[in-house]
Amino acid sequence: MKGKQFGILMGLALLVAGGLAACGKSTSSNGNSGQLAAKQVVKLSAKSEVTTLDVSKAADSTSLTMLYHTQEGLYRLGKKEKLINAMATKTTVSKDGKTYVFKLRSNNHWNDGRAVTAKDYVYSWQRTVNPKTASEYAYLMAGIKNYDQVQSGKLAPSQLGVKALNKNTLQVTLSKPVAYFKLLLAFPTFFPQEQSVVDRYGSDYGHTSGKTAYDGPFVMTKWQGTNQNWELVKNTHFWDKKNITLQKMNFQVVADPSTGLSLFQKKDLDATMLDGTQVANLKNNPSLKTFVGGTTYYMQMNQKKVKALRNLKVRQALSMAIDKQQLAKSVLRDGSKAPLGFVSQNLSRNPKTKKDFATDAYVKSGVTYDLPQAKKLMKAGLKATGTKKLNLTLMADDISVTKTVAQYVQAELQKLPNVKVTINSLPYKTRLSRSNSGNFELVLSSWGADFADPINFLSLMSTGNTNNNGDFSDTQYDAAIKRSENQDANNPTARYNDLVTAEKRLMTQQGVVPLYQPATAEMWNSKVSGYVWNPAGMSRGYQWMKVEK
């Protein structure tokens, strides 16, 4: 299963309650009295503009986060990745794990007053997988029966394995069991759409707040498609409106952390994201909050292009030469953490012990810093491959934080014998294009989870995966991934152990070099409290936000 790839911090797009990849621990108390203020309005910021409110086409962090709060899907994701019924009131799954039947609540309505029904889900999903729609996130539906044939144009979208049995009953048929299918249903791509509204506005649908249908706790207003200010207001047609405390959120785009902090200090914002320097200066401020989880920043090594990188000792040397603790604490200084592996911390837990997956799958040699050992490994690896000098180009995005990381990695790697590293900084889209085409030697990448399951990371390194840009290939790794998706798909413990095996194999073979887990560091108004994002960024933070006296 593929995921959404971001440049460093690209996924950390929205402040307060996070963004798609702005994931972390949750908090529900700020130490205040708990008495509500009469004015339930908050002033928030986003790192970028909204691009679309079209459920089928939204792919950027800001747009997806707006959809989380203006739409209601089958489930929401709560604390510790717990699924919470939203539109679904009861779910029945067949013994073979391939047929799901959802009973839907009958008391939710679109903002025009029309009831939300099972047909709205059928229409939405068929529209998303229709190749003419060109949905970036359609692949998340790959497990649904006939998906591949619909995407290739061999079958009509109406043949997708989803149907309305009646007004309030939705049936979904999968091509094979998908253990994390319910988690996917909390993602905006799986939200319903009101066909009459889509038909009415055609190509203009989702491009302004007035040409969109809403069935969630809030409705967007004052967004004309390109402006950098908009509002979310309480939806009077939402089924659970009595439990929505917040009345309005005023948004503005603030891309620069210095501008954001200034606005926060003037009380023109109730929260703002910080950079590393600001975090260091404000580390003792009680308004500072940091969140880590759901994203890993890592280095890929192109084994297809560079002969020496096919040698395990060379790959291990490159990893051991980089002090990840120093990178996180002394270079970034924004609350980021050294990684335990490729799969991020605070993402998924052991179904029996509830232990963090990253802890269960930890391989010390895959992330440790040991320069003396790295030098020995590099010397042996170069000798084994007949390489006298290793000249490598490190490709990275040209934004300031990434440049800093690249310079640090360059300095660390050049401590190795006969190794020289040259940095090639490129615009994000150019860097991503070259990464995807395999046109690099070393490249800095990041991954923000789309859903809270280790497979969202681990599938990336399977042989032939389009995101496996370094061409890592290992039969034992592939076998563990395949077991998790086939014979063990309906056995949570066996499947979990398969994924632990895969992660350990990836780190033992040094298929990638995990560098750090990015943090979101923010300043919060002490009078604003509520639910902060969980891993994979799927929580409904705004729904539970409130302003206290």
Descriptive notes:
There is one protein chain. By secondary structure, the chain is α+β, with helices and mostly antiparallel strands. The chain has helices at 61-70, 118-129, 147-151, 181-184, 195-201, 257-265, 276-281, 312-320, 324-332, 357-360, 364-367, 371-385, 400-413, 428-436, 455-458, 475-485, 492-508; strands spanning 5-6, 41-46, 75-77, 83-85, 88-93, 99-104, 162-166, 169-173, 218-221, 229-234, 248-253, 271-273, 288-292, 295-301, 390-397, 419-426, 442-448, 513-516, 519-524, 528-529, 546-547. Strands 1, 14, 15, 16, 17 and 18 form a six-stranded mixed beta sheet that branches. Strands 2-11-10-9 form a four-stranded mixed beta sheet, covered by helices on one side. The chain has a four-stranded antiparallel beta sheet with strand order 5-6-8-7, with helices on one face. Strand 7 (162-166) and strand 8 (169-173) form a beta hairpin. Helix 8 packs antiparallel against helix 12 and helix 16 runs antiparallel to helix 17 (492-508). The longest helix has 17 residues, at 492-508. The protein is globular. Residues 1-32 and 533-538 have low confidence and may be disordered.
Helical content band: 25-40%
SS content category = alpha+beta
If helices are DSSP runs of H or I spanning 4 or more residues, what is the number of helices?
17
Q: Judging from the principal axes of the Cα atoms, what is the shape?
A: globular
DSSP E strands, number: 21
Low-confidence segments, given as residue ranges, are 1-32, 533-538
The separation of the N and C termini measures 46 Å
Determine Rg (CA atoms, Å). Answer: 23 Å
**Portion in beta strands:** 15-25%
Overall residue-averaged pLDDT value: 90
Largest sheet: 6 strands, mixed
